[in-house]
């Protein structure tokens, strides 16, 4: 019994030796295996977190770029290639996007400023090779590493071209509103004298008609003809003032039944002087029984004014502008304005509807007229398109649905 007890005790004390654990080999391998399991779990967690961060990174609708401490692109999200496909490639310098003309620009470059710990908010404009200009708000923030050092930069790029367009539209609306107030005062001051002129001229005409002795006086032979001219031109001036008031009146967003022929007539009265001065022959062919459309009068006046002014400005020297309306298929009305001007090149014709795109010289336009017109026509449920040949002119066609019967 004692021998058995001694033997058992010896087996327990020499267990590690019998199992080979005295040299820690099995223990070492077990520990390594445990560490491997822990590392695999950690890597799985890191991959999961990485996928989450990448999903967040790609879900941001703004352009997002991460620059390293030397100002080179480390990462970018899927939005950046839409606006800057080459400038934001990994490895590219901040110079290529923010200051291509200078090697460095510590006072103006948002990346270089952010690397010093500054939070930067600026706006930039970018013109593509096709001439289209877009506007961006840029925010640059430094990223600290584990030691608290600021060695990378996070940049957000937000396209604000549409916002800028809306701001300019509001500015234009305010200008038109101010013009409307001014025109109202001017119209009041002019209409009173015109009414007096027309009234006295009509009174003299009635006197000529009532007193035969005056009509038979040879010295007054041309007076009646002159008085008719005075009356006619007085009412023509009044019509121009009324058209100016209608055009400058701020839209309240309400819609009503409109005959597009009336809108065209009002607008043409305002630009008639330009066609006469520049010897442009304007030919008008308006369908008399044209059905009404449902729309905003102020908005449609602006469309007609933009298209007509573009047609007149496209012509250098004598030329022809044709304005026509007609009933089209599918219960719609067609307005066409054709000019014999310079035309539009094929490589840019698809961009003329973009905000701020213009082929005019500096100071001749902001590139908003066609963009605004396009939005107005679409808002009315219509379509607008263009056909053009360089050197032969352009034709703009606007189709809008008629009022339901």
Written account of the structure:
The chain has a 5-stranded antiparallel sheet with strand order 2-1-5-4-3. Strands 7-9-10-12-11 form a 5-stranded mixed sheet, covered by helices on one side. Strands 6-8 form a two-stranded antiparallel ribbon. The protein has 405 residues and is α+β, with helices and mostly antiparallel strands. The N terminus is likely disordered. The radius of gyration is 39 Å and the shape is elongated. It has 4 domains: 54 residues; 100 residues, PAS domain (Beta-Lactamase, 2-Layer Sandwich); 86 residues, Helix Hairpins, CATH 1.10.287; 141 residues, Heat Shock Protein 90 (2-Layer Sandwich).
SSE inventory with pairings:
Elements lengths: L1 H12 L1 H5 L5 H35 L3 E5 L5 E4 L3 H4 L11 H4 L11 H5 L5 E8 L5 E12 L5 E10 L1 H50 L1 H4 L7 H26 L7 E3 L1 H18 L2 E7 L6 E3 L1 H17 L5 E10 L3 E8 L29 H11 L3 E7 L3 E9 L4
Helix pairs in contact: 7-9, 9-10, 10-11, 11-12
Task: Please provide a brief summary of the model.
47% of the residues lie in helices and 21% in strands.
Share of residues in helices: 40-55%
Which CATH class of the largest domain applies here?
Alpha Beta
Low-confidence stretches: 1-10
**Strand tally, please?**
12
CATH architecture of the largest domain: 2-Layer Sandwich
Q: How much beta, percentage-wise?
A: 15-25%
Query: How many strands, what sense, and barrel or not for the largest sheet?
Result: 5 strands, antiparallel
Provide the residue-averaged pLDDT: 79
Number of DSSP helices? 12
